[in-house]
């Protein structure tokens, strides 16, 4: 199908873009990998599109002391192949490599995917585990919020009308941190039936940092705090990992579809949490 | 698709039962409803515009209440369609008093969804329907709390 008529503008700079969306009526277009299919199916019929996809000032990956700042229109492919991310925040690069297919990764952007808040998108698991922050901009000002507060519900975020994601901020990993992203792929869509991101650091034979982020299981991505708590202070033996991973679906109301019942999804989450933790541990030094 | 769950609302069971059958209340609580009219005994016609972030769709349909067992349970029968798909289903609502001022509403039903939305959005139907139900009960609870108890009972 063909999308309904809409007004299109491609502002020359960020300020113009923010002015154009300030009344809250326009929809922001970046890579178009989520929005355009919705428009073609007429699930979405925005009257006005503001295209920020070509704004060079939002396309960057740079280190800033202990953080790495990623501009909103940076593509999945740029993230997947970034030498800076691969060496200093490999979890995000690993997650990016799992998204969709080559075409989607060349066009789709981290800001667009995050703002769309698909409950089965790949990034959110890693962003939760990384305790990433988002810089949000509007014509009225800026604010920075943790991703845990950003993902509110299915397709629902903390973005206010007239506001865009300008930057995703992830940490430079400490020496000795091991990370991993484990995903069960939905065969048709490439989305995660379940995706688990893990970060693990050991010191003196004990786990000192454990972070686990989950996507695909329920209405929104989340950090599995109970798994982290069970693991921290332990020796991260196989049994410790299995026992901790068993807690991952405890607080979640698991989704159901043709590919997986809620019980099976929760089971997949437990198995893949254990795998993600074991791989992260093997990469930790 | 099976839909089930429960929600605790901060009002007595009798009153919850009353409010859950009041078309004015339902129209206000159901996200996107802009028209709801009585067309027969326990039967209503409704129009709604559902908006969930980027996704929106217009639906028109009928809602019927049956098997009334006041104040414990009733059946809700829904039939609706729009450009992006159709839905048909029925569910049983069970009300159980938890205390003098709170009631657990349990719902359990089976819904068939077809058309474009089911063909391409299958993966998201469950999460989305849960979101709609959650929004409904949040609004319902807020409204029940605000309304003066004497105005309805």
Please tag this protein with its features.
heterodimer, A: alpha+beta, Uridine Diphospho-n-acetylenolpyruvylglucosamine Reductase, domain 2, Uridine Diphospho-n-acetylenolpyruvylglucosamine Reductase, domain 3, 5-stranded antiparallel sheet, 4-stranded antiparallel sheet, B: alpha+beta, Alpha-D-Glucose-1,6-Bisphosphate, Chain A, domain 4, 30% helix, 52% strand, globular
Helix content of chain B: 25-40%
CATH architecture of chain B: 2-Layer Sandwich
Strand order of the largest sheet of chain A: 4-5-10-6-7
Q: How many discrete structural domains of chain A? A: 3
CA-based gyration radius of chain A: 19 Å
What series of H and E elements makes up the topology of chain A?
A: EHEHEEEHHHHHHEEHEEEEEEEHHH
- State the fourth-level CATH superfamily of chain B: START domain
Strand content of chain A: 25-35%
Low-confidence stretches of chain A: none
Major sheet: arrangement of strands of chain B: 1-7-6-5-4-3-2
* CATH class annotation of the largest domain in chain A: Alpha Beta
* Gap between N and C termini of chain B: 36 Å
**Would you identify the CATH architecture of the largest domain in chain A?**
2-Layer Sandwich
What does the oligomeric state look like here? Answer: heterodimer
């Amino acid at each position: 199908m063909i999308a309904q008529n809409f007004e299109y503008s491609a502002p020359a700079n960020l300020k113009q873009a923010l002015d154009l969306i300030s009344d809250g009526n326009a929809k922001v277009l970046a890579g178009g990998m989520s929005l355009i299919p919705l428009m073609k199916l007429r699930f979405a019929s925005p009257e006005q599109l503001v295209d920020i996809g070509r704004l060079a000032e939002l396309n960057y990956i740079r280190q800033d002391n202990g953080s790495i700042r990623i501009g909103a229109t940076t593509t999945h492919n740029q993230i997947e192949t970034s030498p800076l991310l691969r060496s200093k925040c490999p979890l995000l690069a690993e997650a990016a490599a799992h998204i969709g297919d080559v075409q989607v990764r060349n066009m789709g952007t981290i800001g667009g995917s995050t703002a769309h808040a698909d409950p089965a998108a790949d990034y959110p698991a890693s962003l939760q585990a990384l305790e990433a922050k988002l810089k949000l901009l509007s014509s009225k000002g800026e604010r920075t919020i943790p991703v845990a507060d950003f993902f509110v519900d299915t397709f629902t975020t903390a973005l206010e009308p007239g506001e865009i994601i300008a930057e995703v901020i992830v940490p430079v990993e400490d020496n000795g941190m091991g990370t991993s992203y484990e995903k069960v792929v939905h065969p048709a869509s490439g989305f995660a039936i379940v995706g688990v991101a893990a970060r693990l650091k050991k010191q003196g034979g004990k786990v000192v940092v454990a972070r686990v982020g989950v996507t695909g299981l329920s209405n929104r991505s989340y950090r599995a705090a109970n798994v982290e708590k069970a693991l921290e202070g332990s020796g991260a033996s196989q049994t410790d990992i299995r026992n901790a991973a068993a807690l991952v679906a405890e607080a979640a109301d698991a989704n159901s579809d043709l590919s997986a019942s809620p019980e099976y999804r929760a089971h997949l989450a437990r198995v893949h949490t254990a795998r993600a933790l074991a791989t992260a541990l093997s990469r930790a030094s | 698709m099976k839909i089930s769950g429960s929600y605790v609302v901060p009002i007595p069971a009798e009153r919850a039962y009353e409010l859950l059958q009041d078309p004015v209340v339902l129209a206000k609580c159901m996200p996107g409803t802009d028209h709801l009219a009585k067309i027969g005994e326990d039967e209503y016609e409704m129009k709604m515009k559902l908006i969930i972030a980027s996704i929106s769709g217009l639906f028109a349909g009928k809602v019927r209440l049956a098997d009334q067992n006041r104040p414990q349970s009733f059946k809700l029968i829904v039939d609706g369609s729009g450009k992006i798909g159709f839905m048909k289903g029925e569910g049983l609502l069970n009300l159980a008093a938890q205390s003098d001022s709170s009631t657990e509403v349990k719902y359990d039903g089976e819904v068939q969804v077809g058309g474009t939305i089911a063909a391409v959005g299958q993966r998201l139907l469950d999460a989305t329907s849960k979101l709609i139900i959650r929004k409904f009960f949040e609004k319902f609870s807020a409204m029940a709390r605000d309304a003066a108890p004497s105005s309805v009972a």
